[in-house]
Amino acid sequence: CYLTGAAKLVVVVAIFLLTFYVISQVFEIKMDANLGHIFARSALDAAARSTKPPRYKCGISKACPEKHFAFKMSSGAANVVGPKICVEDNVLMSGVKNNVGRGINVALVNGKTGELLDTKFFDMWGGDVAPLIEFLKSIQDGTIVLMATYDDGATKLNEEARKLIAELGSTSITNLGFRDNWVFCGGKGIKTKSPFEQHIKNNKDTNKYEGWPEVVEMEGCIPQKQD
Fold it and tell me: Which residues belong to any copy of the ILEI/PANDER domain (predicted)?
């Protein structure tokens, strides 16, 4: 009986050890498989990150050089979607921010630091041009001025207002007409005409929207003002 009991104990212990060994082997295999999957996933993620195109400030197509401010802007879409102005990855004006309106939308930026100074919009259909003229005259030298139309930005413009905007570097302001789409980036005290300007005429034969031309977009790098 003793030998039988001892034999049974040996068998039980042997089965336990074998079971433990099998389980441990399976566990290690599973661990190896999981680790392999994790490493493979990490390698794929790293490859995806390396092939994904980099994102630049304001979503522009390439990085700006040192001592330049990145900007991107668009005019309004008909009388439905407002314009958008972004500088150095900061959205200064947009429909989402609820600070745009019919007419000419203006954002003022410090030419040395890139910081926002002010935003305003002026209704050039049902409003008065006098507040726009007063605002333009108050802009300090060295200020970056970004403008975008929404709906109609020209009907109430007069010669004085157009001259003040032209002095900021605009060339298209003299021809800006009813419901034209226009975006412009210039500066107070600029000595030359600005290279940052886009203008599309309102033309019933070519308009993308009924009564309005397509949206105009523009991006670039504004040189930082140096002392």
Answer: 102-189
Q: What residue spans define the domains of the chain?
A: 1-48, 57-223
Which parts of the chain register pLDDT below 50? 1-3, 29-33, 35, 39
pLDDT given for residue 2 in this prediction: 44
Concatenating the DSSP letter of every residue in 177-203 gives -TT-EEEEEEETT-SS--SEEEEE---
Using one digit for the tens of pLDDT, what is the confidence trace for 143-189? 999 999 999 999 999 999 999 999 999 999 999 999 999 999 999 99
In terms of Cβ atoms closer than 10 Å to its own Cβ (0-12, 13-18, 19+), residue 176 is: buried
| Torsion angle (degrees, nearest 10) of CA 145, 149, 152, 153 | 10
The SS3 of residue 152 is: coil
Q: What counts of helices (H) and strands (E) characterise the chain?
A: 3, 9
| Burial call 11-35: b when 16+ CB within 10 Å, e when fewer | eeeeeeeeeeeeeeeeeeeeeeeee
Which structure tokens are listed for 195?
Answer: 């290279």
